[in-house]
């Protein structure tokens, strides 16, 4: 059976990578393993946030593929690509990491997006949970890199710009031929005062809303390039709630989808 696919989307800087990394660690701690973590952002930082190794990227593979394509070979290219996938997977305790990377120079992303889609299909059955850290904006949805999402985490800071972005992403997800079974709005870097001031009608329609407080330590870890791996981290209760909401696919939600706000 295909693993539960959780995709983090939202504006750049909203905290997608941070929350994806903390969620992966939480899922590993609580036994939903092995987790497959996918860094689908060309500006890959998930390995750093997890403190994981990255043996190679899909973009590197594409460059090798181009070199091999010049030479005659008895092995079909498809088979070669699938064999190479094993070499791209970073194996960590409780999870594996696959990194998309970015093509050198002005080359287009279509090919590596196609490979990512192919690998996602091949791998999804082997993991109970797949966590995808998507690139900022909406490109990955419109290019259909991620076709069938169990939980779309709409990540936003408590700002008008962040909220507008997640509303647009939610609307685009509705308009595209992809399935999104559940939406969770993660309002990140939020203070108690911010949380109280958020107008619920500014949120995109979602089954759940989770608040993740602003935390100085996260910013310090990022500034120093340290992974966020402390199990007693003050944000842990919020991440536990996020994990619960992301995996509550069949439970009756208390927050019914809201009407699309009139802006
Ligand atoms: N809850 C939080 N509290 C404080 N800083 C945070 C929090 N979440 C993320 N950050 C900081 O916000 C910045 C952007 O986070 P990042 O996860 O890279 O965002 P994205 O992946 O959406 O671009 C990083 O410097 C990170 O340390
Ligand atoms: Mg990121």
TrEMBL record:
<dbReference type="InterPro" id="IPR050625">
    <property type="entry name" value="ParA/MinD_ATPase"/>
</dbReference>
<dbReference type="InterPro" id="IPR027417">
    <property type="entry name" value="P-loop_NTPase"/>
</dbReference>
<dbReference type="GO" id="GO:0051782">
    <property type="term" value="P:negative regulation of cell division"/>
</dbReference>
<feature type="domain" description="AAA">
    <location>
        <begin position="8"/>
        <end position="170"/>
    </location>
</feature>
<dbReference type="Pfam" id="PF13614">
    <property type="entry name" value="AAA_31"/>
</dbReference>
<protein>
    <recommendedName>
        <fullName>AAA domain-containing protein</fullName>
    </recommendedName>
</protein>
<dbReference type="GO" id="GO:0005829">
    <property type="term" value="C:cytosol"/>
</dbReference>
<dbReference type="GO" id="GO:0016887">
    <property type="term" value="F:ATP hydrolysis activity"/>
</dbReference>
<dbReference type="InterPro" id="IPR025669">
    <property type="entry name" value="AAA_dom"/>
</dbReference>
<dbReference type="InterPro" id="IPR014433">
    <property type="entry name" value="CooC"/>
</dbReference>
<dbReference type="GO" id="GO:0009898">
    <property type="term" value="C:cytoplasmic side of plasma membrane"/>
</dbReference>
<dbReference type="GO" id="GO:0005524">
    <property type="term" value="F:ATP binding"/>
</dbReference>
């Amino acid at each position: 059976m295909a693993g539960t696919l959780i995709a983090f989307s939202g504006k750049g800087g909203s905290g997608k990578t941070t929350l994806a990394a903390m969620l992966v660690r939480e899922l590993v701690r609580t036994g939903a393993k092995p987790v497959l973590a996918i860094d689908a952002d060309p500006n890959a930082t998930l390995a750093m946030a997890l403190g994981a190794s990255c043996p190679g990227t899909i973009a590197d593979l594409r460059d090798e593929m181009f070199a091999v394509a010049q030479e005659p070979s008895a092995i079909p290219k498809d088979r070669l690509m699938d064999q190479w996938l094993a070499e791209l997977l970073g194996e960590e305790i409780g999870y594996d990491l696959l990194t998309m990377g970015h093509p050198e120079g002005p080359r287009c992303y279509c090919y590596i997006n196609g490979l990512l889609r192919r690998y996602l299909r091949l791998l999804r059955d082997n993991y109970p949970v797949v966590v995808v850290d998507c690139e900022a904006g909406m490109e990955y949805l419109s290019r259909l890199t991620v076709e069938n999402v169990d939980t779309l985490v709409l990540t936003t800071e408590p700002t008008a710009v962040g909220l507008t972005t997640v509303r647009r992403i939610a609307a685009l997800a509705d308009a595209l031929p992809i399935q999104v079974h559940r939406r969770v709005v993660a309002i990140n870097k939020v203070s108690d005062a911010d949380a109280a001031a958020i107008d619920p009608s500014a949120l995109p329609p979602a089954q759940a809303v989770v608040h993740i407080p602003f935390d100085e330590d996260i910013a310090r870890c990022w500034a120093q390039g340290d992974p966020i791996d402390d199990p007693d981290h003050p944000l842990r209760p919020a991440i536990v709630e996020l994990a619960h909401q992301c995996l509550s696919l069949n439970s009756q939600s208390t927050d019914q989808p809201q009407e699309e706000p009139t802006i």
